[in-house]
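Shipment paperwork, digital attachment
Item: protein structure file
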Amino acid sequence: MPVSLPTQRGKAEECPPCHIRRGHFDRLVLFLLALRIHFDALRLAPGPYLTACKWWLLRKRVRARGQFAPLLTRSSRAYKRWVLQQAQIAVPSPPGAPVIIALVACPTGASGLEETLASLAAEGVHVLIVGDDPAADLARLADLPYWGCEAWLLPLFAGDRLAIGAARAYRAAMGEPGVTAIFADDDLSDLLGRRTAPHFKPDWNAELFRHHDYLTGACILRVGYDGLATAAEAGAGWAGALVDRAVAEGGGAVHLRQVLHHRRQRPQPCLPLPAVSIAPALPRITAIIPTRNRMDLLATCINGLAAADYPEIEAIVVDNDSDDPSTVAFLAALPGHSRPGLTIRVMRHPGTFNYSAINNRAVAEATGELLCLLNNDVEMLAPDWLAIMATQALRDEVGAVGAQLLYPDGRLQHAGVVIGVGNAAGHAHRFLKPDEEEGYFRRHALPQFVSAVTAACLVVKRERFLAVGGLDENSFAVAFNDVDLCLRLNGRGWQSFYEPRAVLVHHESVSRGPDRDPVGATRFASELAALQHRWRTDEVFDPYHHPHLSRASEQFALAI
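Attachment content:
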């Protein structure tokens, strides 16, 4: 039977001396926890920890922070320290706040209901328990006097608890017009109340949600009678059905970047992934491959492109002053390898290496509806990679599509780009071992919208590339041109897309080499400054990342 639960009583106000003593004690606890976290990091990974210390002592602070962040997060005490650092912020409920009704799933045998009801009582939330017959229980909801168009539903599971102030935080976000779903971050809580495994979620990401339900059990929904009927028909999956209905009606969900739910368990990512349904009529695609010497790398790349299961490919190899005799001979012979379905031609682009100018010039002569920007040091592992990427690039809402790129040793080199990492942009989940490590909620293994992808292997519609003006030759000759392109495409409503089912090996600028000379370092500094000026990457955070994840690490490490 539904019950209306009382609100929490306020705390007695502490005297100032108590506040002072408590402040000193809290600082001491945080300091001691920090020491234990560093000790844990040293014990778990002594070599990498000492390397990070070395960079810190050498005043290479950015590099040191980037190496410390994932090491410190490994400590079981890291999240405990983060929790202690967070102050409880009271969020006043607006006048005439809508009713919140918690639908608590409690089938026979479920435990933890008392804890759940106690947390709901503290938040002043109405309750309806949904047992073994969801259809009948949800039908009772429609008869409640406080149910109506202004009521919001909060699907929970027995054993889950709301954080202090969760209802107020949700109510404060309900006034936005057209919103039908609001979700929050969460963590896990055991029988003793110990909190672990925080999930700091991205903002609404429709593609990620298709493969990982990160809303159900940690969201609040506004649905009508039709949505309630749909959920009742779903049986045991009623909570997910409510979420799907609310998201569809509102065109997405609003994210509250706060840990508002302490949970016993969560929905898991849907792995293994289903195969991509390849578009029935793939259009002609132009692959653009800048190169300089290193015939061995280029030959591997061309062979992989030729082996791609794709109906019509135009390959434009742009030579930037190759002077190795074997490479020159190879380039001269390349057009002769053209065949039905594959046309190869070589374009000369002499002078200082300018990646943006090289690609823009080739695009001007490309005949494909799609473009594939491709580094010469990329190695293909399966023939379906290009068709998979092209299929995603043909979607109305998609701009640039990036593949999963591996280092030759099998570690991740690219799984999307995060804006703001290192105050610039970094490759998500870099150096993760995808076959051995779970990473951050398996994000590296799931298709999703991202802020940017690398041009080492990028597919985009030619008309969209041209619509935003192509690559910026003046501000981003070598570095960050792909990030800038993707952000401009995003601004036109063509969102960047990471596709992990297209897997390639990237030897990462082997033929060009790193920029360690003074000229290269100066150019890089100029391009970094341009990126920060244009996109404020030293200030903003990536909506597909999170403010509580470290800006120093590409591995989604807790910021402590």
